[in-house]
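Hi W., the adenosine-5'-diphosphate complex you wanted:
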Amino acid sequence: MGKRRKLIWQLYPSYLIIVVLSLTGMGLYSFKILKELSQEGLLANLQAQAFLVQELVKRSFSGDRWAELDKQLKRIGASTSTRITVILPSGKVVGDSHENPERMDNHAIRPEIKEALAGKPGSSTRYSLSLNADLAYFAVPVQRDGRVVGVIRTSVPITAFTQVLRPFFLEFFLAGIVILVLAAGVSLYVSRRMEKPIEQIQRGAARFAQGDLQFRVETPRSEELGALAESMNEMAAQLHQRLTTITQQRNELEAVLSAMVEAVLVLDTRERILRVNQSAEKLFQIDATKVRLRSVQEAIRNTDLHRFVTSTLAGRMLVEGEIVIIGDPDKFLQAHGVTLTDAGGHILGALIVLNDISRLRTVEKIRRDFVANVSHELKTPITSIKGFLETLKEGALNDPENAERFLDIVIKHTDRLSLIIEDLLSLSRIERDAEKGEIALETGSIKEVFEAVEKTCRDKAQPKNIRLEYAVDDGLNAEINLTLLEQAIVNLVDNAIKYSEPESSVKVEGHKARDEIVITVQDHGCGISRDHLARIFERFYRVDKARSRKVGGTGLGLSIVRHIVIAHGGRIEVESFIGRGSTFSIHLPA
Ligand code: ADP
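Structure:
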């Protein structure tokens, strides 16, 4: 593209050229007309003079008095610039106002003379060698008795005519210059006036192009430009409105996407990421701006997801699947994929929605494990009971010594069954009440709770001769359910007794630490190894099954404690070292 020129500089020179051309044309034309007119006038003048002279010279023809004629002509010629010549039909010059006729050529072949000799007036303009100038000639015949007896010719140099015109030329030229200057000025003014609104519109268009759609172009008074400006304003207004709508819709979509718990991924047909929401960013630990337009394989390292994306893009139906993110812990995602199509049915990409179902999975697993555990726990005593009862029936009843022993074992297992069922019932009751918010909490004294625990546990500690020590401030109060908290502490003290060697001591303490009430149960027993610590609060989880069973454990005690503490809005912690003992601490909000 060449260098751009302003519109005015494209229009203005052509204006000027038109003005100059029309002035020149007009000048030349009027000069031609003037020249023709003046030549006509000149000829008419010559003609009039010729006719006048005709009367004057007619007399000379009657007696061939040529010398007298010549003298007369010279006299007339002295007072006028017109040259008068009298020629005979032979072409001989017999008189001339300015020259000696003797020295003049034969004039018979001069065109105007020829015409006059033929009986009609003749005229001609041509260059005269003798005078070295353009001359106009007019010739009239002199007739007597219907016969041409001579010719009178008048002539005048045309230079005289141009000289007459010269001052007029100058005036014409000056007037032309004035008109040219005026025309140049006017056309400059008009061009500038036209240029201004165009510039306004151009500036407006530039503002629109820069995105300032609320700008309005001033409407020029010119019809066409006014309409153009109005159309542009209208266009900008509509564009602005559409953009506002689009922005609003985009913001709404953005808000919906970022509020979604589900991870959302939008991909194009080449499996490149177009957008991801905040949940997806968190789930895959990616940055939305960094992964945009990168392939899903490159951005997210998960083969399950890659396979799922490919199969979604391959079909047009809603695709369902499961994706696992390996980690600590593993995450299980339920995936829904659907292709995105335009109005024409062409596939634009895919929408993938991922739902984290890890918690659901964990709950399911816990339930499955729980059912398996309960069955297993119940099966052992029932099998024993059944075995011994059968043995008794098959004859052992008749052996009183063994019968008594067998019955004792049956009772022991039945007790265990009842213990397990009691614990299960108590656990499910606490869980249910906590879920329904039916566990009543009221301000109670921790000291009171300790006193109840002391009463219950005294007999349990005695057989192993374990010393129980209690320490609690008098005024220590908390929002509690006295019965449940007592049960929780009893369970902890019970465990401490069970897993401690005889003659050792167990310390139960209550104190206030910052905004918490802390109740600790400390023993000097066998302790729990690190890898078991995290799981001992699970139902039926036991570090050493045989030992737990031997001491009458059900594997539910700590689970009950945990649920009670949670129902109080608190938490339970444990610190333990193998061979040195364990400290369980219940933290309740003060
Ligand atoms: P159990 O009825 O078997 O005691 P719990 O739920 O009360 O079940 O405890 C789970 C497991 O945690 C026990 O089997 C035991 O191995 C371990 N444990 C609990 N308390 C203590 C403790 N004070 N010292 C050592 N191990 C303990």
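The mean pLDDT is 89.

W.
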